[in-house]
């Protein structure tokens, strides 16, 4: 069962290292020389494991297969002071424990932390074991902790650069939406449609998606209408703010000049209208504005 999952994930974007499998990233050495049986009790969990949730039903299914056929594909570990640290194969380790095994086949390699995370991501992506949010957190960790660029992540993981970018954007959504994606209540496509909406609207649309079983296209249309409505509401606000600014300037000019002043905006600027009511007042304004006597 494990081998079958590794061979047929159905993803179409896999190229480069991902398409060639884990062997493309593991320092090459004869499998016969590197394959050993190690005690499950001496294996420590991978601190860089990107998977945050495990499907218990699928785990039980794998455990049943291991009881019948054993662990077909070895796990990958690196040596530690007190045993071994798991790099790839967490589900196989958990399932082997459920199946009652004491030891599992393993390939031992010495790997840096960034390589451990990279291999863990590759293995999980190959098996479709990560949800979109887990992938996003894993890519973010490669970038923030290990200095990868998005282009480097794309090349090493075997995904197109836009896919990496779009997946990372999911982390900008509110936690409620991220959780809904992580547990499969809504799809990644639903979540992407909510990008850019205010947090309150994201939560509202999430409720509508789940209550009315909206498709991705329906969600995109709803989000579009909300954005347009928000833009329409913001225009009067900007106009009111502009009008208030004009009134303030008019009042300051009235006080400075001691007469009625009107401002009017136009497409290419505007007009300032200064009123006077006698020849004497005109002379006073002229002197005030130019600094000389008319």
Concise summary:
The protein has 294 residues and is of the alpha/beta class.
**What's the level 1 CATH class of the largest domain?**
Alpha Beta
Determine the structural class based on helices, strands and strand pairing. Answer: alpha/beta
The CATH superfamily of the largest domain appears as Conserved hypothetical protein from pyrococcus furiosus pfu- 392566-001, ParB domain
Number of domains: 3
Task: State the helicity in percent bands.
Answer: 55-70%
Radius of gyration, in angstroms, nearest whole number: 32 Å
The shape is elongated
Largest sheet: 5 strands, mixed
Order of helices and strands: HHHEEHEEHEHHHHHHHHEEH
Distance between the termini: 100 Å
Order of the strands making up the biggest sheet: 1-5-3-4-2
**Beta-strand level of the residues, as a percent range?**
5-15%
Counted by DSSP, the helix tally is 14
Q: Which residues form runs of ≥5 with pLDDT under 50?
A: 1-33
By CATH, the topology of the largest domain is Conserved hypothetical protein from pyrococcus furiosus pfu- 392566-001, ParB domain
What quaternary form is this?
single chain
Per CATH, which architecture of the largest domain? Answer: Alpha-Beta Complex
- Mean pLDDT comes to 77
The tally of beta strands, per DSSP, is 7
Question: What does this molecule look like?
Answer:
- The chain has 294 residues and is an alpha/beta fold.
- It has three domains: 171 residues, Conserved hypothetical protein from pyrococcus furiosus pfu- 392566-001, ParB domain (Alpha-Beta Complex), CATH 3.90.1530; 69 residues; 37 residues, no CATH class.
- α4 packs across α5.
- The N terminus is likely disordered.
- Helices cover 56% and strands 13% of the residues.
- It has a five-stranded mixed β-sheet. The protein has a two-stranded antiparallel sheet with strand order 6-7.
- The protein is elongated, with a radius of gyration of 32 Å.
- The chain contains 14 helices and seven strands.
- A hairpin with a 2-residue loop joins β6 and β7.
């Amino acid at each position: 069962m494990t081998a079958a999952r590794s061979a047929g994930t159905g993803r179409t974007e896999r190229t480069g290292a991902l398409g060639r499998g884990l062997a493309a990233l593991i320092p090459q050495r004869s499998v016969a020389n590197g394959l050993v049986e190690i005690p499950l009790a001496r294996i420590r969990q991978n601190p860089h494991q990107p998977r945050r949730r495990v499907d218990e039903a699928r785990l039980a299914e794998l455990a049943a297969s291991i009881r019948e056929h054993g662990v077909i594909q070895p796990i990958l570990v690196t040596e530690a002071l007190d045993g071994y640290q798991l790099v790839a194969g967490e589900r196989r380790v958990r399932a082997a424990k459920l199946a009652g095994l004491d030891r599992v086949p393993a390939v031992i390699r010495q790997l840096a932390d960034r390589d451990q995370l990279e291999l863990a991501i590759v293995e999980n992506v190959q098996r479709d074991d990560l949800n979109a949010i887990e992938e996003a957190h894993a890519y973010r960790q490669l970038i923030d902790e290990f200095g990868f660029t998005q282009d480097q992540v794309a090349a090493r993981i075997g995904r197109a650069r836009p896919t990496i970018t779009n997946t990372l954007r999911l982390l900008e959504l509110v936690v409620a939406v991220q959780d809904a994606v992580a547990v499969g209540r809504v799809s990644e496509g639903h979540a992407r449609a909510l990008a850019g909406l205010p947090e309150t609207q994201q939560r509202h649309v999430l409720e509508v998606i789940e209550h009315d079983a909206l498709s991705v296209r329906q969600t995109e249309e709803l989000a579009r209408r909300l954005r347009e409505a928000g833009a329409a509401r913001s225009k009067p606000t900007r106009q009111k703010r502009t009008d208030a600014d004009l009134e303030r300037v008019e009042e300051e000019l009235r006080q400075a000049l001691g007469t009625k002043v009107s401002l009017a905006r136009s497409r290419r600027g505007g007009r300032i209208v200064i009123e006077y009511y006698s020849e004497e007042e005109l002379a006073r304004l002229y002197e005030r504005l130019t600094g000389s006597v008319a």
